[in-house]
Amino acid sequence: MHSLPDGYTALVIGASGTIGRAFQRAIAADPACAGVVALSRSTHPGFDLGDPHQFAAALSALPSDLSLVIDATGILSNDPAGPEKSLSAVQPQNLHRLMQINAVGPLMMLRELAPRLARGRCLYGKLSARVGSISDNRLGGWYSYRASKAALNMLLQTAAIELQRRLPGLVVAAMQPGTVRSPLSQRFVSAATDTVLPEEAALGLLAALDAIEPGPGARFVDYRGKTIPW
Ligand SMILES: NC(=O)c1ccc[n+]([C@@H]2O[C@H](COP(=O)([O-])OP(=O)(O)OC[C@H]3O[C@@H](n4cnc5c(N)ncnc54)[C@H](OP(=O)(O)O)[C@@H]3O)[C@@H](O)[C@H]2O)c1
Hints:
This protein is of the alpha/beta class. The protein is 33% helix and 16% strand. The protein is built from 5 helices and 6 strands, in the order E-H-E-H-E-H-E-H-E-H-E. The two termini are 26 Å apart. The structure holds NADP nicotinamide-adenine-dinucleotide phosphate.
């Protein structure tokens, strides 16, 4: 990462996932990185986004000068039938669960992490999704996923504005990786679907993050470095 100091430290949250793993490998391969910590439900300590009370313990052993944080967690649906195709398929408990895992949990994680962010240039990227863009929504459907990612984007923008007052070198980005084959996407990706390899998505998003000037507020970017309208 050209914009970070030599010997920087990094954290990948959700490193057990397809895109999270690719981020962890890409960051570990950066000669300027002194160390990357991986956290997930299966690390020790670990965390579940459904239970923010676990976050403090999961983060307690982390360095206090993190220059790069990637949160690659997320779920597409909480229903065996998959994301809702119609209003009649929306179940309140599924909508609540998606809000908790995709929006509320990551914000509470960022709150817990904030005191550990480096005071100089610092990059925080959260995997969002293009379908969370309100202005880009022309197809409808996927109510809970879309709504939870749109809520995430607003929470990131609001947190960025506040945190940048204390940390003027902080970059906050909501990130769209492209369509990547993973357990999350598998039901909607056929052999013919145009997909992006996880490594390509991770490297593209790291380059996009590296190029963003700090503040004001958050940015919504894709793996090619293009800005997505909120
Ligand atoms: N794949 C795509 O095409 C695509 C497109 C647009 C956006 N995205 C976004 O990219 C992100 C990563 O997706 P992916 O494709 O890499 O999916 P994935 O392989 O299914 O990985 C999902 C990650 O989220 C974690 N996670 C899920 N529920 C959790 C919980 N309750 N507590 C803690 N961690 C939890 C998983 O942990 P476990 O390993 O413990 O389950 C895993 O690390 C998501 O935010 C997704 O919305 C993906």
